[in-house]
Design goal:
Number of helices: 8
Radius of gyration: 18 Å
Strand order of the largest sheet: 1-2-8-4-6-9
Number of strands: 9
Helix content: 25-40%
Strand content: 15-25%
Structural class: alpha+beta
Length: 253
């Protein structure tokens, strides 16, 4: 029998694969961790996140991790929006914490709630006021029912994303999403200039094509493995053991 999993990776259902890239849940309740093990690390990414701090306190680390920085860092909102980050970031929990991060494609964020990801570059802000009140209320209830938290998130987002075409497994690859932008943002008329095309890509994705290509070069570190969710004992060891109590998927020891 497997031991409890303090960090979990979730992939979206096909109906939401064009909206959600992936999600990570970290739950350190009941674990004895050192100060260093209380960090969560996040890579630079063109994708924004919606974050939930379901229990405990999660502090945003500014600058190099250290005691002085932790003491001065602000607490992350209970329900927040984390914009794309151009450099790696970190958070730290002074005690036990249960948190969930859902990575959303910038074009999906714009389509759902008219939020421009580039307006929140390198920022962490409360989600309240950025989405309709009914949506915020539904998302604020995540983690309060018997249904697993990620299933609750999908249930809340699915009606708003109902017209999205079903995507195949390649959607879970960040490089495939970046490569899909030029044809998806093509102008209806021929003769468009290069600057027009690049402007449409930036409007669609929140960053320039040149900046996105930097992330495309990181395909291997950011590639999401296709996992059989019904057979966790078949997952790679870091995804199913207490090793993930140190750092979840976004980061490393």
């Amino acid at each position: 029998m497997l031991t409890p999993i303090p960090a979990r990776l979730y992939l979206p259902s096909p109906a939401l694969a064009g909206c959600i890239h992936m999600a990570v849940e970290r739950d350190t309740r009941g674990l004895q961790l050192s100060d260093e093990q209380r960090y969560s690390f996040y890579p630079a990414s063109p994708l924004p996140l919606i974050s939930w701090v379901l229990e405990g306190d999660l502090r945003i680390v500014e600058g190099s991790p250290g005691k002085e920085v932790r003491r001065l860092a602000a607490s992350s909102p209970r329900l927040g929006l984390i914009g794309p980050f151009r450099k790696p970031a970190a958070s730290w929990a002074p005690g036990a914490v249960h948190a969930l991060w859902v990575s959303i494609y910038p074009d999906a964020l714009s389509r759902l709630w008219s939020i421009r990801a580039e307006d929140y570059m390198d920022r962490v802000v409360p989600l309240e006021g950025l989405v309709p009140d009914a949506t915020f209320d539904a998302l604020a209830r995540i983690g309060t029912g018997d249904e697993p938290s990620f299933q609750q998130i999908e249930s809340a987002l699915r009606p708003q994303w109902s017209s999205s075409p079903v995507a195949d497994a390649s959607t879970a690859d960040l490089r495939a999403w970046i490569a899909s932008l030029p044809p998806r943002t093509a102008l209806p008329k021929a003769g468009a200039g290069l600057r027009q095309i690049q402007r449409r890509i930036k409007d669609h994705a929140g960053q320039s094509q040149r900046d996105l290509q930097i992330f495309a070069a990181l395909k291997k570190p950011l590639r999401v493995p296709r996992l059989d969710m019904a057979k966790p004992d078949h997952w790679p060891r870091p995804l199913r053991t207490r090793d993930t109590a140190i750092n979840p998927i976004w980061g490393g020891k």
